[in-house]
Structures are given as structure tokens and as C-alpha cells.
């Protein structure tokens, strides 16, 4: 049962459901794992490293050591976790010098997901209604508990597709994202709020938000003492800034998958491309050059919205299936006369489920569990 809007108690986590990606791992002969499970740890030993099992015993098995060394985990990584299973889809994680989590996957997993790295977008889209229900609950909480402020950040992220941010980037590069915004980055004009800041790569952002509910909430958190925009009150009433790890943990708890803030940008980029392509007539005659010009125009529009270069946007944030479906007419047929954001989402989700051969009904049932 969800927490009362006036309660500061944490809403219980939803039941854990087997992630759809576990099926992908099984097909590849792998085991879907998480770095929350027990694993080997790494410790300095002379000029190199030694490894310990979860009980603290030194790893001496030659085959295990060979596997670990083959992962080529950089010496600078900290908080290293190494999978106990040779066939684990995720073999290791660690924190780089900027405190960003880095991943080492099994080669078979890379081969399988390299061709279908956008498959998870269907599960993400199917889980959005569940996330929105939780956001509505958490945004009604009184005061500024962590769940409410995290919900504000996620709601703003869903509205703007802005990067989540990283404290190290803010400190060393003076580049910002949602979780590292300062009060000086916010300006209000009547019923509108503007976020003006320098983002990753030195790109200047000037983003307007018109949603009355979000404007009111952002105004409220800005009035809290301190320079950080998004802060919550802990159990002692002390203000604490939110961080990207907390936001990703919130998404994982609510959506029941290992989704992160980056998935919002992938979903948003693909959905934006879907809508633009639906409004773009096929060129006559449909020459390769004409088709490429039209597609490049769409990619540039989406890249501007995401704050990326067109090359990065094409590679990482737009599912290529929308371009294929546009060229063969499937996209236009599925889009039909969609009106309103929810209808567009359902149309895009239907197309991607067909292309990736994912049962949309099954994905929705899993998301609602």
C-alpha cells in the first residue's frame, strides 16, 4: 500500500520481478547477475593486486585469477566488484577517478546486446505508467523528504530530458546536470521557470518549463537554505543534496529494472524521432540521398533537444528501428492520427515491441506487478 501523502515513511519497494533481460542472458548461455550480489573484491598487494572472496579469503585458483586479470580492470578503479560466476553477464564494476561507475560485461553478452542494445527501451516504456503513479504519490508528500525531492528531479528529467549530472564534473569542469544545479541556475517569470546552465562539453542550456505543478515545486525547493537547488530533509531535519546514485536507485526501486537516468534520454530521443518522422513525408523519388537528408534533419532536431552532437545522438539515443519503419511505411501506419503525448508513446511502444519481438502485453504486466 502506498504511503499517505502526509506520511514521511518510505513507500515499500514493489515486488521484485525477474528482469526481461534475464531471458536475453539465458539465451546467450549466461546468468543475469547484479553487483549487489556477493563478489570478489580487489586489494593492493605490493606492486599489484590481490583478490578476496566474500568471506575475505585470498583467491588462489589459477583459472579464476586468469579470468579476473583478463578483465583488465584499470588500476585506478576503486570499489571493485567481480562476479563469482564465470558465466555472469556482468563480470565486474568499479568507480573511476571521477567516481562514475564503470562496467565490464561478458563478451557473449556484448555480442548479443550489441545487435539489440535498444531492446530494453520497450520495458522502459511499458514501466512509465508505474513510475508516473509513484511520482504522483511522492510529489504530494508534505515537507521535503528524500522521496519527494527525488520525485521532483525525476519529473523534471522526464519533462526536459536533461542529463542527471555528476558532482565531480560540477567541481572540476564547472559543468552541471539536474542533481548539481545551483539556485543561481534558476529564474522565474510569471508561471514559467527557466534553467540556464553550462552542461557537459561546455554546451549552454536554456530550458523552459511551463508545467504549473513543476514550476511550483521548483520554486519551493529553491527557497530552501543553501546553494544546491535540489535538497531534501533527512530524518534529523538536516538538508542534504540529492545525487545521481539516489536518483538511479529511485528509478530502480519504482520501475523494477536496472533502469537509469540515461534510459530517459534514450526513450525521449527515440520518441522525438518517431514523432518527427511521422510528420515527414517520404521523398519522391525515394533516392538514398533524399532519404538520408530527411533522416539527418530529424537527427539534428533530436540532438538539439538532448544537447548532443548528431553523431552521438544517432548512435546512443535513437533506436534505428524508427528509421527503417519510416522508410517501409510501418511507422506512418502505426502512428496513424495519434494526438497527445500518451497516444504518441503508445504508438512508438507498439512499433518497437513489434521490431524487437517483445510481447508488449507481457512487458506491461511485468511493469504493473
UniProtKB/TrEMBL annotation:
SUPFAM superfamilies: DNA breaking-rejoining enzymes, DNA topoisomerase I domain. One of its GO terms (molecular function) is DNA topoisomerase type I (single strand cut, ATP-independent) activity. This is DNA topoisomerase. Belongs to the type IB topoisomerase family. It comes from Pseudoxanthomonas winnipegensis. Its EC number is 5.6.2.1. InterPro entries: DNA_brk_join_enz, DNA_topo_I_N_sf, Top1B_N_bact, TopoI, TopoI_cat_a-hlx-sub_euk, TopoI_cat_euk. Keywords: DNA-binding, Isomerase, Topoisomerase. Residues 115-315 form the DNA topoisomerase I catalytic core eukaryotic-type domain. It holds the Pfam family Topoisom_I.
